[in-house]
Amino acid sequence: MLPELKIAQLRYFLLVAELKSFHAAARQAYRTQPAMSLAVRELEQKLGQALIEKGGGRVALTPFGEHCLPLFQALIDHHDRIAREVTLLARHEIGQVSIATVPSVASRLLPGPLGRFVAEHPNVQIGIQDGTADSVQQLLAQGQVDFGISSMWMADDQIEFAPLLNDHVGVVCRADHPLVRAGGALHWSQLQGLPMIRNGTSRLLEGTDAQCLLEHSRLFISNMISLIAILEEGVGISTLPYLAFPQENEKLAFLSLAEPKVERRIGILTCKGRSLSPAAEALMQFLKAHVSL
After folding, report:
1. Helix axes 278-290 and 63-90, enclosed angle (nearest 10)
2. What pLDDT was estimated at residue 86?
3. Which residue from 15, 41, 14 is spatially nearest to 26, judged by alpha carbons?
4. CB atoms near residue 92 (< 10 Å)
5. Residue 72 has pLDDT above 90, yes or no
6. Residue 239 in 3-state DSSP?
7. How far apart are CA 61 and CA 52, in angstroms?
């Protein structure tokens, strides 16, 4: 059976070996000399061999002690390195965090808060995956990310949803479209007869008075870049959450849909019963406090 080596006893032995004196080692360790002698003696008893030569005024190591010296030093160095790393992890000063989010959140809401968090925690590594709300839930459920930021499309008893903000849905069309010239908020009935282009967020209209607009749509585009290009050509109109609308695009306009008022709830998704690492927990709490429209 292997002996269980106590870190304190190894440290005392190394200190005695370095200073060549129990008295000097005891003074530096803020211990009594008998306590130092007892620690080294107990270590020798565990090993079954003497580490320090008996007798004489000056401390000298036995051949066994000389052989053990670099091994004990390596063990202490390894212990201290692990202790430092674990402490930094616990204080969320280092670590790795992986999150999943929808592109509109990644581009519109995260840059500012994430920049501040990275500046305050320069040794925390953060990975971001973006995708649809469905894929965010899937990545979370599969354990590939620590938490997600998205709307929650499908009910799931295993996922906790903490709301952050509401993102209202509006109509997107060319800036020279008659709807823009008419001005004011839109009623869904004003959109009847207009070519509607569905996209991944169009299902937000389901269950509302505007659902019939989707039933007559003949075009579905899932890719946002392609959708924007088609809208710029004036092929039709579409609906998007406000955050998903490209604000810098001068060819398109975003018009509020007043009736029905449709919103998507953006929040943080976590798996029930699964603890977060200290770094992930720190980032999540930071985003809860700083993410806003």
Report:
1. 20
2. 85
3. 15
4. 20
5. yes
6. strand
7. 4
- Determine the residue type at 10: L
User: What residues contact residue 188 under an 8 Å CB cut-off, 6+ apart?
Assistant: 208, 209, 210, 213, 257, 259, 260
Residue 88 has pLDDT above 90, yes or no: no
Report which of 170, 184, 167 is spatially closest to residue 257, judged by C-alpha positions: 170
Q: Do residues 20 and 57 touch, judged by C-beta distance below 8 A?
A: no
**Structural domains of the chain in order of their starting residue, each with its CATH number:** 7-90 (1.10.10.10), 95-164+265-290 (3.40.190.10), 166-263 (3.40.190.10)
Q: Which two tokens stand for residue 5?
A: 């080596």
Total length of the chain: 293
Kindly state the tokens that stand for 137: 């839930």
Place of tokens 């955050």: 243
Q: Work out the number of other CB atoms within 10 angstroms of the CB of residue 196.
A: 23
Q: Tell me what the mean pLDDT of segment 219-232 comes to.
A: 94
Residue 172 clears pLDDT 80, i.e. is over it: yes
The pair of three-digit structure tokens given for residue 210, joined into one six-digit string: 């505007």
97 and 127 Cβ atoms separated by less than 8 Å: yes
For residues 152 and 38, give the distance between their C-alpha atoms in angstroms, rounded to a whole number: 63
149: nearest Cα among 238, 240, 280: 280
Report CA Rg, the chain: 32
How far is it, in rounded angstroms, from Cα 205 to Cα 157? 24
Nearest CA among 144, 156, 275 for reference residue 284: 275
pLDDT in tens, 109-156: 999 999 999 999 998 999 999 988 889 999 999 999 999 999 877 778
pLDDT band at 85 (very low <50, low <70, confident <90, very high): confident
